[in-house]
Design brief:
Helix content: 25-40%
Order of helices and strands: HEEHEHEHEHEEHH
Structural class: alpha/beta
CATH class: Alpha Beta
Distance between the termini: 39 Å
Radius of gyration: 16 Å
Strand content: 15-25%
Number of domains: 1
CATH topology: Glycerol-3-phosphate (1)-acyltransferase
Largest sheet: 7 strands, mixed
Oligomer: single chain
Length: 194
């Protein structure tokens, strides 16, 4: 209930402040495990990716955020779970896979940080997708977060994982990560705002 209330309030806030639009929501399956893989441009990105999605979207978040009074319990209620600084731990990966195997939706930013925009993406999303049998949806956040300037979130068609499922080659996670980010970057390029 708390999630639905705050998602509604965030929708109103994002629509008013950033003229937020979402396109391609029909590409997100109505049930089953889903990973939304997005580019990362701002601290505003997690709510931006999830606020218009009809299903609850879960995220990994820095462990330090959970220690902040009021904010920590709030993000936990929104479906976030902690990750230790310095990389994603085995516990965080297990939590993500369990969450997905239970049929939930997870948002992941393969670039890792805002400073790595367009850089080499991390392989975690690919590994989690293959281990959980999740559908991977590429997501592009286009626009900037200047007040009253439009931000649009584009949800693309699912990434085709069939070539990777039974592949045992040592570079399969690299290749799947490249395939995911290629789709994300293609969405960005096709929808660049001037």
């Amino acid at each position: 209930m708390l999630y639905l209330l705050f998602r509604f309030l965030l929708r109103v806030l994002y629509i008013c402040l950033f003229r937020l639009e979402a396109k391609g929501l029909e590409n997100i399956p109505a049930d089953g495990p889903v990973i939304l893989c997005a580019n990362h441009v701002s601290n505003f990105d997690p709510p931006t990716v999830g606020v218009k999605v009809p299903r609850k979207v879960h995220y990994m978040a820095k462990a330090e955020l959970f220690k902040i009074p009021v904010f920590g319990p709030l993000i936990r209620a929104f479906g976030a779970f902690p990750v230790k600084r310095g990389g994603v731990s085995k516990e965080a990966i297990k939590s993500a896979i369990t969450l997905l195997k239970e049929g939930n939706v997870m948002g992941i930013f393969p670039e890792g940080s805002r400073r790595n925009q367009g850089g080499e993406a991390k392989k975690g999303a690919a590994m989690i997708a293959l281990r959980s049998n999740a559908v991977v949806i590429p997501v592009a956040i286009v626009g900037n977060y200047s007040l009253f300037r439009k931000v649009t979130v584009y949800y693309g068609k699912p990434v085709d994982l069939t070539a990777f499922i039974d592949d045992s080659s040592p570079d399969k996670l690299d290749r799947l990560t490249d395939a995911i980010m290629k789709d994300v970057r293609a969405l960005i390029a096709a929808n660049k705002q001037t």
